[in-house]
Amino acid sequence: MSNVYFASARIKKWKYDDSIPGKLERLLNEIDLGKYLEPEEWVAVKTHFGSEGAHRIVRPVFLRKVVEALKGIGAKPFVTDTVRIKGLDYLEVANQNGINHLSCGAPVVLADGLYGRDNIMVKAGEILGEIAVASLIYDVPAMVVCSHVKGHINAGYGGAIKNVAMGGVSSGHRHLGWKYGRGAMHTIGEGKLVWDQEKCELCYQCEEICPLDAITFEDDKLIWDGDECWRCGRCVRVCQLEAVSLPCDDERFMRSLSEAAKAVLSTFKPNKVIYINFLTEIQPECDCMPAADVPVIQDQGILISDDIVSIEQASIDILLKAHPLPASMAQESDITPGEDILLKLHHRPYMLQVEEAERLGIGSRRYELVEI
Ligand code: SF4
Ligand code: SF4
Predict the structure, then answer these.
(1) Are 183 and 212 in contact (CB under 8 A)?
(2) In CATH, what number is assigned to the domain containing residue 201?
(3) Closest Cα to atom 8, ligand 1: which residue?
């Protein structure tokens, strides 16, 4: 059984100590970073930079508190994420969303280089075999994983496991290609994109969202460049008519997330990774989408733990007790209080990722919630 420390988003007093940044400072004290990290040690503060229109990420004010706490014990932090769109463009996105050296108080760097090809093959498991872990995450001795908790069109729920799994590996390997990157989780087999001309209304959203220009239209026909394509799935997610698809298996997807998370974590010695889940601005979709919808439930607070499975289970337990918000996708989906909001939003077996992570031995679903 692991401890999960929790601070509610509600404030009871108009004091800094009761604010969310103030409570995050207290949580970081509570877990005692000095137990895990050495002075002078380099520490990756792993987050998601968001996208040009998805601003509901872990806010820079929180990243700065984490950086300051790490500096307070003499560690040397930097803020990082892997390349999701072309590297230079992604750094611009980070800057636009307020994540930069000045705001965070530490360098902001790409974990797998500007081209997203700096990675090292790491043994995974029976689904993935091997996976290309970002070289910086592979090399760094310690990590604080700052995850924005939200829904997810494919995973149902996105938190620390997804941040470590998808966010700790590259889109592809320099020689071995997309099959050893996050595309190996997103799709199956040859990952051949299928376009259904009958359904397509030529809105060109898929072409616009593709980070690699792997989709073009000629004479009103979709042309897909399978050699260029990362199998990131963005085109599939933005098509509201389901006119493009990649072959996918939900159960395999969930299990492969846990497998990739285990592979990434295998590059660290025990007790060198800490997880912070931000249950704030909990919107229905992933932070890599081109827009962020309004939250489906109210801000709940922040959790911190050294157990990735415990913090995910505790986060989900809190989400499931929360009431759906009016004027949100939750209301449009007719979700009533007490119903499983994560399941009803996306109809995905989201708990599988947590159960599988426990089965693979990277943590325990049994936890004790310690509220500060
Ligand atoms: S997003 Fe869908 S509907 Fe729009 S052009 Fe692409 S396939 Fe067609
Ligand atoms: S999956 Fe779609 S959006 Fe992603 S790289 Fe391939 S074609 Fe582009």
Answers:
(1) no
(2) 3.30.70.20
(3) 200
For residues 221 and 259, state if they share a domain. no
Residue-wise pLDDT for 240-276, tens only, equals 999 999 999 999 999 999 999 999 999 999 999 999 9
Indicate the residue among 245, 263, 287 that finishes a domain: 245
Q: Indicate the top mutation candidate among 197, 198, 202, 213 to test ligand 1's pocket, ranked by most ligand atoms within 8 A of CB.
A: 202
**Looking at the structure, do residues 235 and 111 belong to the same domain, yes or no?**
no
Ligand nearest to the CA of 221: 1
Closest CA to 36 of 63, 74, 6, 64: 74
Determine whether the shortest distance from the Cβ of 11 to ligand 1 is under 6 A. no
Q: Domain residues for 232?
A: 189-245
Q: Please tell me the number of the ligand nearest to residue 183's CA.
A: 2
Long-range contact set of residues 328-336: C-beta below 8 Å, sequence gap at least 24: 328/284, 328/293, 328/294, 328/295, 328/296, 329/284, 329/293, 329/294, 329/296, 330/284, 330/296, 330/297, 335/296
Going by alpha carbons, the residue nearest to atom 3 of ligand 1 is 200
Same domain (yes/no): 215, 360: no
Percent of the residues in the chain that have a pLDDT greater than 90, as a whole number: 95
- Going by alpha carbons, the residue nearest to atom 4 of ligand 2 is 232
- Is the C-beta atom of 291 inside 6 A of ligand 1? no
> pTM higher than 0.90, yes or no?
yes
Ligand 2 close to Cβ of residue 244 (< 6 A): no
The reply to whether 301 and 344 lie within a common domain is yes
Mean per-residue pLDDT for 106-133? 97
Q: Please count the structural domains in the chain.
A: 2
For residue 271, the one-letter residue type is: N
Q: What is the pLDDT of residues 62-90, one digit of tens each?
A: 999 999 999 999 999 999 999 999 999 99
Q: Determine whether the shortest distance from the Cβ of 212 to ligand 2 is under 6 A.
A: yes
CATH number for the domain harbouring residue 356? 3.40.50
